[in-house]
Description:
Layout: H1 4-34, H2 39-44, H3 51-73, H4 80-106, H5 111-133, H6 139-161
Amino acid sequence: MESIGELKKIKLFLAISAVATLLLGFLNHFIYEWSGGNGVAGLLFATNESIWEHIKLALLPMLIIFTVGGFFLGRKVNNYASAAFFGMLVMIFFIISAFLCYTFFARRAILPIDITIFTVAIALGYATAYTMFFKRHIKWLNILSCVGIVALYAAFFTLTYHAPKFFLFEEMFVTYTPKY
């Protein structure tokens, strides 16, 4: 880190990135439906109301932002790839655990709580990235993190259309009301 000015730029980048991820995530919720169920759109955007698919709402914006940000910050901070990967993992695990914990007790999904979980997950993901920027540079961890990001996206692409019978892939608390 060279100066306080550089530190402010990094903080500003992450704050803007978190807000952009949040806004793009809300928009991403509708893109698959707007596409008319396009298969390619389904790889990138949520196709149903499962926990797994809702993780995509933040995952794609984070990937795009970290990819673009790498051109600006990649050499100014340590562990850029690891910061991105671990930020994504923290976000994923928080969404899963927080949603499952509260719905266990509430027995239903509550939209304001879901939005709060989504927002906090994004904030935690970017906070994790921020802390990773200042750890000692570990080359092998950055290489492994790049592999991890590719594996993460391969899993999301594959499991979108070949989901196993597992609770993360089931639509949660969706109520169907027949139209008469």
